[in-house]
Amino acid sequence: RNLDEVEVIAVSKKKSSEDIKKVIDSGHISFGENQLQEVEQKWINLKKEFPKVKLHFIGGIQSKKVKSIFEHCDVIHSVDRIKIVQFFAELEAKTQKNKEYFIQINIGNEEQKGGIRLSEADEFISNSRDHYKLNVIGLMCLPPLGEEPKKYFTELKSIADRNNLACLSMGMSNDYDMAIACGATHIRIGTQIFGPRN
Questions:
Q1: What is the distance between the alpha carbons of residues 92 and 90, in angstroms, rounded to a whole number?
Q2: DSSP state for residue 141 in the 8-state scheme
Q3: Residue 39: helix, strand or coil by DSSP?
Q4: pLDDT in tens, 14-35
Q5: How confident is residue 112, by pLDDT bands cut at 50, 70 and 90?
Q6: CA-based nearest residue to 7, from 168, 159, 143
Q7: Largest distance between two CA atoms of the chain
Q8: Which residues make beta-bridge pairs with 31?
Q9: What torsion, rounded to 10 degrees, do the Cα atoms 177, 111, 9, 16 define?
Q10: Which secondary structure element, helix H or strand E, spans residue 44, and what is its range?
């Protein structure tokens, strides 16, 4: 794989604006947060100061938080309910702004995890794109903890391929190399960039 094919998202949760600025100063522009509260506390000012920075929202999405996520984030990785799709579509129509979206697939069909079930993935993807006209660029997943991730990454790629989706948001600090080998285009790295979280 050519490294230019992979976007490294520096996951800055629980990290201060000062820590983030050091990474921006080193030339990095792609960051991820999974809590709206942290987006609002840190990134409104950071994005004013560094307008080229691209902010990815990678956490679970609650209906009441859609508007603020839409307002402050450039790419949304965790779309996993049709209600959320509807809210984003309404905001796009109202604001005439378009974002980039990943649909989160519950790749291990785990009860406790967010994401679209494997059996519903194709229909959900086509509905989000064709009916609601969202700019769905790819799929995202979190493989089951403690299991070999390769088969899950491969499965996500096959769903993306049959739906003509170019992007795969998969792989974190402990398994990003396997994710890249399986076709990841976006990897979400926190610890390896910022060090351990308190």
A1: 5
A2: -
A3: helix
A4: 999 999 999 999 999 999 999 9
A5: confident
A6: 168
A7: 44
A8: 10, 55
A9: -120
A10: helix 44-49
Is the pTM for the entire model greater than 0.90? yes
Terminal CA-to-CA distance of the chain, rounded, Å? 34
Q: How many residues does this entry show for the chain?
A: 198
Decide if 16 contacts 190 (C-beta within 8 A). no
Q: 């308190």: which residue's tokens?
A: 198
DSSP, collapsed to helix, strand or coil, labels residue 129 as: helix
Name the one residue in this structure whose structure tokens are 């004013």.
Answer: 48
Q: What is the pLDDT confidence band of residue 196, given thresholds at 50, 70 and 90? A: confident
Which H or E run contains 172?
none
Q: Using CA of residue 153, residue 154, residue 157, residue 163, what is the dihedral sign? A: negative
Mapping DSSP to helix (H, G, I), strand (E, B) and coil, where does residue 13 land?
coil
- Quick one: three-class SS letters along 78-118? EECCHHHHHHHHHHHHHHCCCCEEEEEECCCCCCCCCCECH
Could you report the per-residue pLDDT of 65-110, keeping only the tens digit for each? 999 999 999 999 999 999 999 999 999 999 999 999 999 999 999 9
Pairing outcome for strands 54-57 and 186-189: unpaired
Report helix, strand and coil shares of the chain as percent, to nearest 5.
Answer: 45, 20, 35
